[in-house]
């Protein structure tokens, strides 16, 4: 379509309310904890004696609670926000809230080919796609629609 795109780099700052950038060390640490929680979910799922499914959101909260109790750690308010960002990003990937996603099958699509290529942004926004697709079409607005007979 000849639409200009901007390739995103590997580094992507995580901004907090007020516009300040999250300390990359905090983001890295909470990304580690996020992935560790998902690893425990995978271990739970692979336990053959475990036959019942549960919502992923419930399982994540249970694992997080157990980890914090056993380790004696506490996440700061900022760390908790960053963890919630990672969980929200997982909801985006799953297309649903984690309370409506299976803890057993949340990543079943990982076994299939994923989207490939660079991550990009359309520099003039996604509406450019609609305008390109509409070229040559007779589109009318503010007109009554009548069934053809």
Automatic annotation (TrEMBL):
The keyword Flavoprotein applies. It comes from Xenotaenia resolanae. Its cofactor is FAD. This is Lysine-specific histone demethylase 1B. It comes from the Eukaryota. SUPFAM superfamilies: FAD/NAD(P)-binding domain. Signal peptide: none annotated. InterPro entries: Amino_oxidase, FAD/NAD-bd_sf, Flavin_monoamine_oxidase. Keywords: FAD, Flavoprotein. Residues 46-145 form the Amine oxidase domain. Pfam families: Amino_oxidase (PF01593).
């Amino acid at each position: 379509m000849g639409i200009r795109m901007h390739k995103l780099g590997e580094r992507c700052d995580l901004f907090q309310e007020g516009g300040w950038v999250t300390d990359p060390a905090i983001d890295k640490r909470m990304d580690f904890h996020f992935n560790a929680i998902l690893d425990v979910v995978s271990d739970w799922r692979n336990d053959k004696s475990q036959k019942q499914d549960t919502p992923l959101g419930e399982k994540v909260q249970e694992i997080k609670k157990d980890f914090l109790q056993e380790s004696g750690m506490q996440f700061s308010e900022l760390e908790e926000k960053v963890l919630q960002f990672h969980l929200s990003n997982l909801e985006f990937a799953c297309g649903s809230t984690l309370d409506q996603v299976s803890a057993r099958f949340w990543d079943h699509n990982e076994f299939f080919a994923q989207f490939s290529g660079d991550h990009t942004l359309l520099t003039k926004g996604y509406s450019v796609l609609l305008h390109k697709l509409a070229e040559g079409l007779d589109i009318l607005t503010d007109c009554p629609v009548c069934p053809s007979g």
